[in-house]
Amino acid sequence: MTTSRRQHTLEVLVENEPGVLARVAGLFSRRAFNIETLNVGPTEDSSISKMIIGVAVEGHSLEQVIAQLDKLVSVISIKDVTPKAKEVHDTQPDYQN
Amino acid sequence: MAKHVPTANGTEMTGATSLVKSLEAAGVDVMFGLPGGAILPAYDPIYDSTIRHILVRHEQGAGHAATGYAQVTGRAGVCIATSGPGATNLVTPLMDAAMDSVPLVAITGQVPSAAIGTDAFQEADIRGITMPFTKHNYLVTNPDEIPGVIAEAFHIATTGRPGPVLVDIAKDALQKMTKYNWPTSIKLAGYNPKTTPDAQAITDAAALIAQSSKPVFYVGGGVIKANAHAELRQLVELLGGPVVTTLMARGAFPDSHPLHMGMPGMHGTVAAVTALQKADLLITLGARFDDRVTGKLSTFAPNAKILHADIDPAEIGKNRHADVAVVGDVKETIAALIPALKAALAKNKPDLTAWLRQMNSLKSTYPLGFDTPDDGSLSPQLVIQRLGQISGTDTIFTAGVGQHQMWASQFISYEHPRTWLNSGGAGTMGYGVPAAMGAKVGAPDSTVWAIDGDGCFQMTNQELVTCALNNIPIKVAIINNESLGMVRQWQTLFYDSRYSNTSLESKRVPNFPMLAESMGCVGLSCERPEDLDKTIEKAMSINDQPVVVDFRVHRDAMVWPMVAAGTSNDEIMIARATAPDWDSQEL
Ligand SMILES: Cc1ncc(C[n+]2csc(CCOP(=O)(O)OP(=O)(O)O)c2C)c(N)n1
Ligand SMILES: [Mg+2]
């Protein structure tokens, strides 16, 4: 089966504190949101880290991901930095169906 | 109680003293807890503190007591425990408080920082464990950070959508010397709850209401948390539309009010459930479209537009799309909506007469009721109804979880906010007794009744010892149906009456009045309808000791109406295999 879904890339600024990765990863897992890619790095301000999170959700689900992320006190800001009209084509056979 | 004298910043003290000074500075007057090694340094300054510390018999009791205190007072409840098992015993109350948006601050001791990560004695990663159900949590290893973290914890717990915050403090951080440093302001880059609604959203909301012809006020627990009951009543009377109050919102709008259709949801009234199903607009105030209210989501309120007002932006559109969303404090929202709606109604006032006639017809045709057992035994619903009538509308009721909880939500008339406390989102058996203890501490002049199940009571009754020794004279009504009644009801309905492991035999063992007496309470018992009123009056007359009444009731009573889990609200049953007679209703 070939599915076509939009991948969104979120740039998330977080407090650079122990456990912050667990907070974000835990949120995705308990709310059944999928992380496609995750990259964590420093920023010029040593108290703030930057996460680049790729999620394959759209519309209402994307709004929920952002709203729930925003509720984490350690999350400072979230920006959708998706390059325009990037289609992700999943051509892998899907053995589940 | 001694008056709290603020401590000057810069004063040298241990981290433990700094913790206690910080709790005092945060305005804490009472906390519930139980010491152990890792938190022990804090218990030394607690000995001298102006804060009343109530020594519980189980940390779960401390957590639910803090919740009961918070739900009655609207202030943060505080509980405190040691590391490892002490901390994990707080897990259930923290999850419970998160589900019901209760402001709670939990303090736990942690093993010394050098031992963290070594599987040290009584080490548990309580910050990791509680991440999913705390609004935020902290691990403090530097004593200088204690005042700032405590100030933040109270700020986060009590503002925006309230919730539990846990502060885990390493033992060495409590022991080391530090300079006390209470912050003058709190700045959290990632936390800035929006309380004032957008003007445009208010205008849109008013316009939507003025266009509707079948509106329903769907009122949730947020209205009570925001102290918005007076504003709600004004708004409702301005429009003149029907109201439903969820399990968490009982008391937000007087049950005696003619526009009140009752509670919606799995065990809601026919009028309340049908109002939602037939509405063309839900005016949703501080409610979150929980599955116990919506039933099968895809068939919930199929013709209704949704106006959703909530303080938590993540609730908007989570379960149901909102046509108009108003993010903000619901008290501010309603206050802004009143003049906006007046203006909108001046242009176009919908005629709600036919809609109200339909709803009132359902309300009078399908009132809540129950059968009196033929064998002359005591019916549980009657016990609960008489408890409400005899003790009056200023009484605070808490409940456990099960049939007795549903009957207590149905058969007591709630007229005031913060008089009905229960575990709604989590459904925590064992909530009732400790929550009543906390409620009585928060409102010592009120009568507090815990309406508990015989199953629930056996989970947390040890806190009656705490009540007896600390002059907290609560009253407990055990609705003893010798079963895990709600589960048994599901077995009756969905498992062919195969009663696997739901019989508690609690009319034989334990002897509840003797158990109560052994814990320093008065123990009473009542088995016959003719003794009911005088037993309740006897319990009402005892105010210097906790009282426990074993109401030995009929075993097979069931909770009706019922929307079976996963089915549509349209399939509401008023009795076994009995739907309302829809054909005779004009809908
Ligand atoms: C801690 C916990 N365990 C299990 C359940 C599942 N449960 C829901 S209601 C109920 C029965 C409660 O029995 P009882 O306290 O006697 O109340 P009744 O329904 O008989 O009024 C059970 C076991 C629960 N809600 N909480
Ligand atoms: Mg029972």
TrEMBL record, chain A:
Cross-referenced PROSITE patterns = ACT (PS51671)
Is this entry keyworded Amino-acid biosynthesis? yes
- Give the ACT domain ranges: 9-83
| InterPro entries noted in UniProt | Acetalactate_synth_ssu, ACT-like_dom_sf, ACT_dom, AHAS_ACT, AHAS_small-like_ACT
Q: Which GO terms describe its biological process?
A: isoleucine biosynthetic process; L-valine biosynthetic process
Tell me the GO molecular function terms: acetolactate synthase activity; acetolactate synthase regulator activity
Q: What is this protein called?
A: Unannotated protein
Organism annotation: freshwater metagenome
Automatic annotation (TrEMBL), chain B:
GO MF assignments:
acetolactate synthase activity; flavin adenine dinucleotide binding; magnesium ion binding; thiamine pyrophosphate binding
Domain Thiamine pyrophosphate enzyme N-terminal TPP-binding stretches: 13-126
Reported cofactor(s): thiamine diphosphate; Mg(2+)
Q: What UniProt keywords apply to this chain's record, in alphabetical order?
A: Amino-acid biosynthesis, Branched-chain amino acid biosynthesis, FAD, Flavoprotein, Magnesium, Metal-binding, Thiamine pyrophosphate, Transferase
Domain Thiamine pyrophosphate enzyme central: residue ranges:
202-337
**Pfam families per the record?**
TPP_enzyme_C (PF02775), TPP_enzyme_M (PF00205), TPP_enzyme_N (PF02776)
Q: From the UniProt record, list the reaction(s) this protein catalyses.
A: 2 pyruvate + H(+) = (2S)-2-acetolactate + CO2
Write down the InterPro entries for this protein, in alphabetical order.
Acetolactate_synth_lsu (IPR012846), AHAS_TPP (IPR039368), DHS-like_NAD/FAD-binding_dom (IPR029035), THDP-binding (IPR029061), Thiamin_PyroP_enz_cen_dom (IPR012000), Thiamin_PyroP_enz_TPP-bd_dom (IPR012001), TPP-bd_CS (IPR000399), TPP_enz (IPR045229)
Q: What is this protein called?
A: acetolactate synthase
- Please name the PROSITE patterns in this protein's record: TPP_ENZYMES
**PANTHER family, from UniProt?**
ACETOLACTATE SYNTHASE CATALYTIC SUBUNIT, MITOCHONDRIAL, THIAMINE PYROPHOSPHATE ENZYMES
Its pathway, per UniProt, is: Amino-acid biosynthesis; L-isoleucine biosynthesis; L-isoleucine from 2-oxobutanoate: step 1/4; Amino-acid biosynthesis; L-valine biosynthesis; L-valine from pyruvate: step 1/4
Q: Which GO terms describe its cellular component?
A: acetolactate synthase complex
Give the Thiamine pyrophosphate enzyme TPP-binding domain ranges: 400-551
